[in-house]
Write a structure and sequence with these properties.
This protein is of the alpha/beta class and about 140 residues long. It has a domain of about 90 residues: Response regulator (Rossmann fold, 3-Layer(aba) Sandwich), CATH 3.40.50. Helices cover about 50% and strands about 15% of the residues. It contains five helices and five strands; from the N terminus they run βαβαβαβαβα. Strands 2-1-3-4-5 form a five-stranded parallel β-sheet, sandwiched between helices. The radius of gyration is 14 Å and the shape is globular. The two termini are about 20 Å apart. The mean pLDDT is about 95.
Amino acid sequence: MNVDLSMQVLVVDDYNTMLRIIRNLLKQIGFDNIDDANDGTSALVRLREKKYGLVISDWNMEPMSGYDLLIQVRADPLLAHLPFIMVTAESKTENVIAAKKAGVNNYIVKPFNAQTLQSKIETVFEQEAESNAAA
């Protein structure tokens, strides 16, 4: 796996149990530097305070959804290239299309395990490496 396990990961979910689950899965994969935020607004504050290598965000959150967070991240020149994985309970086609148009790097449907999460993260960083090589 050519993913830097020491990078800072930000997990965004308004459901504490889900934050714990994703944090535990990331630890199983080997990540240690994991922060979390309970909504898109506090996630943006954290993203602007600290350098993250990856964002894993839930889609359904109030008041700022994961989709709105993604739009804000992509609109910010300092954050625009940040790898972003969206987590959702339903794999509605229109959500997938909207997230892709907004610039999401990958998409994961609940429930998922460490293996699924790891393969999604690897895919994101493989794509990243390919696009950097092509640039």
